[in-house]
């Protein structure tokens, strides 16, 4: 991720202006302010600020992109406010009616979903407040910024399309109009102006401020895509095997057969007589057997089965095919295979044991024994391993 930040900074080739200074490029800007931050970190009083992160100077510096973002209290804020803020002047009238409107927004905007966070607020909802209370160039402060959606909203107040998507009208001269009811008529009334507002974002959590920084800083899209693909490839190489499935096709049409599950628990309660032990020749009535867990069987039922390899042994693709073939082999002979998926170290299947003679159904334990012993023998043959699981 840090490589990504550095790429991004190198990508900006031209001269850049920052806090009233001009630099040959963005890398020079960053180096200049990093040197100031490095010096500031030597000041014991600076580190005494409540909530100062526990971290080495090098880590704080590596994460920071000063003066825009520092992974510690930002020593450049005073300068920033001095440069971009407008001192309060009681002679300049400021009056706004309290903003009271429905600000509900869906939570499916791609910007909103770029990074999740608890109690995250959609930026479009915040934009309505900012547009109501402020003018372009004003400073907006969010001391509990989380992922920085206030910063996103403040910037998007300068984006015509984003403002229009809120249902406002934007005039050519930048005036923003809202519709109001006047004597039963809808009239458009100016209430704000198009233009970005600058935001100061703060949070107790360095993770939150880091997310907020990334939300609010231009991204080198090419470098981002390259890095995202690299991370995905790494995760797939490490964890992909867990998600590889080998399954019965077409599962969907077979699943249609699944209707009317029986609630075996209620059946036990309502059954006045003691459940009978397993019938060695099959299941002809409700049967309860106590192994590690109670195993209940009812003639004609569907069962969701899960079984795994011994010691989470990881099966090769060939071995997984043997397990699936074993399930298929008995399909239509001893059981109806509704669906099955063979994972590297476990199997899920939905089956319905068939009748072996009138009114007597195949016992699940016999079926499982046949499937497991057939596949274990075949797998041990091709993998040259002993054992039966
Ligand atoms: C509800 S979340 C804000 C979410 C944000 N509106 C967003 O859209 O992502 C509240 C934030 O306040 C932060 N917080 C809690 N106590 C704080 C404090 N004393 N100083 C600064 N931030 C604090 C939490 O870390 C959390 O990120």
Mean pLDDT: 87
Bin the strand percentage: 15-25%
- Ions and ligands: S-adenosylmethionine
Instruction: List segments where confidence is low: pLDDT < 50 over at least 5 consecutive residues.
Output: 1-7, 267-279
User: In total, how many domains does the architecture comprise?
Assistant: 4
* Tally of alpha and pi helices: 15
**Terminal-residue CA separation:** 44 Å
Count of distinct strands: 15
Largest sheet: 4 strands, antiparallel
Give the helix/strand layout:
Layout lengths: L1 H10 L4 E3 L2 E3 L2 H15 L3 H4 L9 H7 L13 H8 L25 H4 L9 H11 L5 E4 L6 H8 L3 H5 L4 E2 L4 E8 L2 E9 L4 E4 L4 H11 L4 H19 L6 E2 L3 H5 L8 H7 L16 E4 L3 E4 L5 E6 L8 H14 L4 E8 L3 E8 L1 E3 L2 E2 L2 H20 L6
Parallel strand pairs: 3-7
Antiparallel strand pairs: 1-2, 4-5, 5-6, 8-12, 9-10, 11-13, 12-13, 14-15
Helix pairs in contact: 7-8, 14-15
This protein binds S-adenosylmethionine.
The site of S-adenosylmethionine has 13 residues, from loops.
Structural notes for this entry:
The protein is of the alpha+beta class and 389 residues long. The protein folds into four domains: 1-84, no CATH class; 91-204, no CATH class; 220-262, no CATH class; 273-383, Transposase IS200-like (Alpha-Beta Plaits), CATH 3.30.70.1290. It has helices spanning 2-11, 26-40, 44-47, 57-63, 77-84, 110-113, 123-133, 149-156, 160-164, 206-216, 221-239, 251-255, 264-270, 317-330, 364-383, and strands spanning 16-18, 21-23, 139-142, 169-170, 175-182, 185-193, 198-201, 246-247, 287-290, 294-297, 303-308, 335-342, 346-353, 355-357, 360-361. A four-stranded antiparallel beta sheet has the order 8-12-13-11. Strands 4-5-6 form a three-stranded antiparallel beta sheet. It has a two-stranded antiparallel ribbon with strand order 1-2. A hairpin with a 2-residue loop joins strand 1 (16-18) and strand 2 (21-23). Helix 7 packs across helix 8. The chain starts with a helix and ends in a 6-residue tail after the last helix. Bound molecules: S-adenosylmethionine (SAM). S-adenosylmethionine is lined by residues 117, 119-121, 143-144, 146-147, 149, 203-205, 208.
């Amino acid at each position: 991720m840090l490589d990504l930040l550095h790429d991004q900074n190198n990508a900006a080739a031209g001269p850049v202006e920052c806090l009233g200074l001009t630099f040959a490029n963005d890398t020079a800007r960053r180096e200049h302010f990093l040197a100031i931050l490095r010096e500031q970190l030597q000041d014991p009083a600076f580190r005494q600020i409540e909530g100062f992160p526990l971290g080495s100077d090098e880590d704080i510096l590596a994460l920071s992109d000063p003066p825009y973002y520092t992974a510690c209290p930002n020593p450049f804020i005073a300068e920033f406010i001095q440069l971009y803020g407008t001192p309060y002047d009681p002679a300049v009238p400021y009056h706004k009616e309290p903003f009271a409107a429905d600000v509900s927004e869906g939570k499916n905007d791609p910007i909103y979903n770029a990074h999740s966070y608890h109690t995250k607020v959609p930026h479009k909802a915040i934009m309505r407040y900012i547009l109501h209370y402020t003018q372009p160039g004003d400073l907006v402060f969010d001391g509990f910024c989380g992922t920085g959606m206030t910063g996103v909203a403040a910037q998007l107040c300068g984006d015509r399309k984003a403002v229009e998507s809120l249902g406002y009208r934007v005039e050519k001269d930048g005036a923003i109009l809202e519709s109001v009811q006047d004597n039963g008529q809808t009239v458009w009334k100016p209430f704000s102006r198009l233009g970005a507002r600058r935001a100061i974002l703060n949070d107790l959590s360095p993770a939150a401020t880091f997310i907020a920084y990334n939300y609010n800083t231009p991204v080198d899209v090419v470098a981002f895509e390259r890095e995202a693909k690299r991370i995905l490839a790494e995760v797939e190489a490490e964890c992909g095997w867990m998600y590889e499935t080998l399954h019965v096709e077409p599962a969907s049409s077979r699943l249609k057969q699944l209707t009317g599950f029986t609630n075996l628990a209620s059946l036990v309660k309502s059954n006045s007589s003691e459940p009978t032990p397993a019938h060695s020749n099959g299941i002809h009535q409700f049967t309860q057997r106590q192994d590690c867990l109670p195993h209940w069987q009812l003639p004609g039922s569907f069962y969701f089965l899960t079984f795994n390899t011994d010691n989470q042994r990881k099966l090769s693709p060939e071995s997984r095919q043997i397990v699936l073939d074993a399930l298929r082999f008995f399909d239509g002979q001893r059981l109806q295979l509704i669906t099955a998926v063979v994972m590297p170290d476990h199997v899920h299947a939905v089956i319905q044991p068939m009748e072996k003679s009138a009114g007597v159904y195949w016992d699940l334990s016999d079926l499982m024994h046949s499937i497991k012993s057939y596949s274990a023998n075949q797998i041990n043959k091709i993998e040259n391993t002993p054992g039966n699981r």
